[in-house]
Amino acid sequence: MSILLQLAKELTLGKIKVVDLTQTLAPEFPSISLPPEMGQAWPFRIEEVSRYDERGPAWYWNNFSCGEHTGTHFDAPIHWISGKDLPGNAVDSIPPERFIGPACVIDCSKEAAKDADFLLTKEFITTWEKKYGRIPPRAWVLMRTDWSKKWDEVRDPVQYQNYDETGQHTPGPDVGAVRFLVEEREVLGFGTESIGTDAGQASHLRPPYPCHYYMHGAGRYGLQCLTNLDLLPPVGALVVAAPLKIRNGSGSPLRVIALVESQ
Amino acid sequence: MTEELTRPKKKNPILRTRLPTLPPGARSRVALGLTAAAAEGRFALQSCRDCGAIQYPPREACQECLSLRLSWKKQTTTGELLAQTVLHHSNDLFFRERLPWRLGLVKLDCGPTVVAHLHSGIADAPVRVHVSARLDRAGQAVIVATPDKESTMAEDRQMREFTCDPKFRKVLVTDGKSPLGQALINSLAKAGADLIWVGHSEPWKKFPGFDELKKIPQVTLIPLDVTDSKSVRELAAEIGGKVDILVNNAEFHRAFGIVNRAGVETARAEMDVNYFGLLRLAQEFGPAMRARGADGQAGAVAWVNLLSIYALANFPSHGTYSASKAAAHSLAQCLRAEMRPAGVRVVNLFPGPIDDEWNQLLEPPKLSPENLARAAVNALRDGIEDVYPGDVAQEWLERWRDNPKALEKELSS
Question: Which of A73, A79, B350, B412 is the most buried (most CB within 10 A)?
């Protein structure tokens, strides 16, 4: 039997489970906030066109609006200045085979629970590799922090965004970790559960926003506002993350799913 | 005698809510001159430019010399009550529900004798009184007599029909994050509002003044984003049937006109908050408030909009903001027409530049949020419909009334 038919069969039998890594698009889902004098991404908004009523008797549908970087979303290299001139750097020109890749899930949930500003380091990753093996090329590295539970479980936008007068406090990778993943592990991209692949305080790192700077500068991708990373094994899951085909788009909201083999 | 206003009893939920009725609202075009002045809190009568006679009621020609050259002029507000009567029967639905009703004839010091609604504190005739033109529930001017200039309208059963005093009323302020929002909340609390719901968008952004707001006992903070239809709809479903006064002060303001800013995103955000925000609120809260226009002593009475003097004429250095306020002004006129059958007053505020972060680089004079808030509360108390608070707004208004084209040219240079 071919591999794909085998896969389809295993899916039917439930031997391969599909885990949804996506937050629901809703107006109340927290959005990226920039200083008020800068341009702002639209939050998700939805307006009813008709609902079996005088506006359309037999059908229900909505118009929605949002920025490219809303909800669970994909960052293309063109999003950042460092990736602006790369070939295939926008969501419409990325080769489609990049939309499927294995996932390495690094569990930082204990560390993030203790310190909202936790930074993932190269040492943390190499320690993880000793236990689960070397990160293969073209893999998604997903930073599990259980940060998504602040939304999934308690629906608290204040906790999820975690702002104080010095800005946002959410976990992310440090400069060394990003450079290691890009230069020595050739990852497909980096994914997080908070808003931003970079830490909340990453504007103070050198360079600012290292994950955006190095990942996109090297033509790699980002996934953010992921959820359910705690349902994935450290290795062995296959992630499907295909953004909308927006001409020259810098990213898009998308449905991210992971295929996981039952034990 | 004037009775002290007491907190209205809780509503009896098994009784039907009375439907709103209005006092007679038809006026000739010429009689609307009295209403136009009363809408801004002025008492003006027709004055003949040929013989100098002052007349009431308004007519097409001078009753002394038949001249057609009449103009509306501000008049003194004192007179003598000549005679009084108490109405015990009326076939008019509005007055029928409010009997007995005290009326009198007042000889104005400026000349004419007028029929006036009488404050209960006025002693029997003959006695000196203060007069003013007030908008009634139909939005039309009537003449009202009070014992003196300082008489409290809200403390009198009859006079209360002409005010929207916040005392003992439940108010929604749509944005508590801005300095103006906080000044409004403080003024409303001081004016005796029973309950103040305070909307705040993007709850993860803690704003200056947040902790102070929470300390005001009347205040309940609620998430509200006027750009999100779902948020507006759900809040209206929750509290729409309780809001007596809605103050929509949510606004989005950035500097610049067309050439100094690339793209349409900022202008769109201005329209989304300033225009569509009002539309969303009006669609969701309007029906509930219209249904409660006669809900006892504490029914729905007023809707306040934060517009701008730039709604009248575009201020090019804040050009797209001006355009959004002009759109909001137009929609507020539609809202006023639609709220009228319920007797719910739409109060529009037309301030000049407010002393806030988005007007940082404008030279004074700038209107302080506290003064604007005070003007808004005074307008509710006095039943004023159009408020042009502060020197800049007054000056612009005067220039605009005198010659809108000249103002446009002045602003473009």
Answer: A73
pLDDT at B1 over 60: no
Distance CA A132, CA A150 (A): 28
Contact present, B169 and B370 (Cβ < 8 Å): no
Contact A70, A25 (CB under 8 A): yes
- Structural domain spans, chain A: 3-37+68-261
Q: Per the structure block, which two tokens stand in for A46?
A: 């939805």
Q: How far is CA B163 from the centre of its chain?
A: 9
pLDDT of B81 over the 60 cut: yes
- Chain A: closest CA distance from residue B182 (Å): 19
On whether the CB atoms of residues A147 and A112 are closer than 8 A, the answer is yes
Residue A39 contacts B where some CB pair is shorter than 8 Å: yes
CA distance B401 to B413: 19
| Distance from C-alpha of B126 to C-alpha of B123, rounded to nearest angstrom | 8
Which residues sit opposite B163 in a β-bridge?
A: none
pLDDT (tens digit per residue) in A180-217: 999 999 999 999 999 999 999 999 999 999 999 999 99
Question: Radius of gyration of chain B from Cα atoms?
Answer: 22
Q: Just list the catalytic residues of A.
A: 79
Structural domains present in chain B: 32-160 (no CATH), 170-411 (3.40.50.720)
Scanning A148-167 for CB atoms below 8 A from B yields 157-158, 160-164
At B163, the amino acid letter reads T
Alpha-carbon distance of B38 to B136, in angstroms, equals 10
* pTM (global) more than 0.90: yes
* Beta carbons of A99 and A221 less than 8 angstroms apart: no
Of B204, B231, B263, the CB nearest to A163: B204
Q: Can you read off the two tokens belonging to residue A114?
A: 């203790």
What's residue B196's pLDDT? 98
Helices then strands, each counted (H, E), chain B: 11, 15
Topology of domain A3-37+68-261 in CATH is Glucose Oxidase; domain 1 (3.50.30)
